[in-house]
Design brief:
By secondary structure, the chain is mostly beta strands. It is about 10% helix and about 45% strand. The chain contains one helix and nine strands. The strands form two sheets. The protein has a five-stranded antiparallel β-sheet with strand order 5-6-2-1-9, with no helix packed on it. A hairpin with a 4-residue loop joins strand 3 and strand 4. The longest helix has 10 residues. The model has no long low-confidence stretch (mean pLDDT about 90).
């Protein structure tokens, strides 16, 4: 039974119940000394090809906004990656991705443990 629970946690949609046309597929964090790269992988719920990455910015619960450092479309056109450069301490905040008409929850408030150079992938916002 615990195997089924683990599988559900791994494969369930990132944020259930959101009505946005965009879906967060996963978020990858890579520590770089006292900073971190946060890469958010997005796809359209309609499974259509993505013509260009959406205009977006990262915003924390205190209203701090981060502009993307990079955005690109995958080679198959079915997903895009938007990257943000953050100070490591900023990862303790809750973050959401603001788009033109939608807001997607990226992470809840809390800390994660990674050493310099380590990477971790999250498939749901409770981290």
């Amino acid at each position: 039974m615990s195997g089924l629970w683990t599988a559900w946690q791994w494969f369930r949609p990132y944020e259930l119940g959101n009505q946005s046309p965009w879906q967060v597929q996963q978020v990858t964090v890579r520590r770089d000394h006292d900073y971190a790269w946060m890469e958010i992988e997005l796809a359209l719920r309609s499974h259509e090809a993505i013509p260009m990455p959406p205009l977006s910015r990262l915003m924390d619960a205190m209203g701090t906004r981060k502009e993307p450092a990079d955005a690109k479309i995958s080679s198959d056109g079915q997903s895009c990656q938007v990257r943000y450069w953050l100070e490591w301490s900023e990862l303790e905040s809750a973050w959401s991705l603001q788009m033109l008409t939608d807001t997607l929850r990226i992470k809840e408030s809390g800390t994660i443990q990674l050493e310099h150079g380590q990477t971790r992938t999250f498939r749901q916002p409770n981290w």
